[in-house]
Fold Iron-sulfur protein.
Amino acid sequence: MVCSSCPRNCGIDRNKVTGFCGTTREYKLAKAYLHPYEEPMISGKRGSGTVFFSGCSLRCIFCQNHEISEGLQGTCISDDRLLEIFFELRDKGAENINLVTPTHYASFLPDVLRKAKANGLDIPIVYNSSGYEDVEALKGLEGLIDVYLPDLKYFRDIHAKEYSGVRNYFSTAKAAIAEMYRQTGPFILDERGIMVKGMIVRHLCLPSLALDSKLVLKHLYETYGDNIYMSIMNQYVPMHRAIGHEKLGTRLSASQYRSVVSYAASLGTRNCLIQDSESQSDSFTPDFDLHGVK
Ligand code: SF4
């Protein structure tokens, strides 16, 4: 079967070879644990049951998870083991199951998610991705994903090409996010403030791309208003191939971040999450030590 999980359309059989994403049909994981530092309505008090998939269909030069996205650290597990991991996280008190970078498994996940729900997994499933998604693959997840947590990284494709190695990022992510919203509708928080249905779109502010950030936020607010959350991230730290990079080799300035946040406020948004400057630390990147996987 030719892989159709992501818009790369490699045209290969994942049962036999790896594609651009670096993985075969087998699930490859690097960590599964209770993550305390996702957005408050995702981590809650108990932590988000985060499952880190190895491999990726993008090549972001600043990737904070590059050991697993490009370095492919991790171990292959069976579908049944993935199912067990979901229940282990639930039993540890996870607020949800948070699938991190699942895009390259999008066509395979419906099977395991259906089994999880049929076996009584009763916490929300969060799909946490780069936004670079295949709409048809997303349609196969309808009814199985409760909360979508995509990035919208760039507005102008020239930046997507330069920093993430992908053409047509904006039009692809825009269509994917529209499909995600079609599935979830406006967000719903439970009585403890945990998101049980809906969408949070993340945007990581990058040095010298303030205009791009504002165009992203404008698009989101004009399209979805206050029916979604926008998470404006201040945690950029030069990592991976961005270290020493002419434009991305520096931290985000406080004035640039303030200017983007002020712009979001000027749009009239009420559901906007922001981060303080202490989030600019690589200590927010977990160790990919296979914890919870084996
Ligand atoms: S998921 Fe991987 S193999 Fe499939 S189309 Fe995308 S990059 Fe290629």
Notes: Residues 3, 5-6, 8-10, 12, 14, 19-21, 57, 104 surround iron/sulfur cluster (CB under 6 Å). Strands lie at 27-35, 48-53, 75-77, 97-100, 125-129, 147-150, 188-189, 195-204, 229-233, 272-274. The mean pLDDT is 96. DSSP finds nine helices and ten strands in the chain.
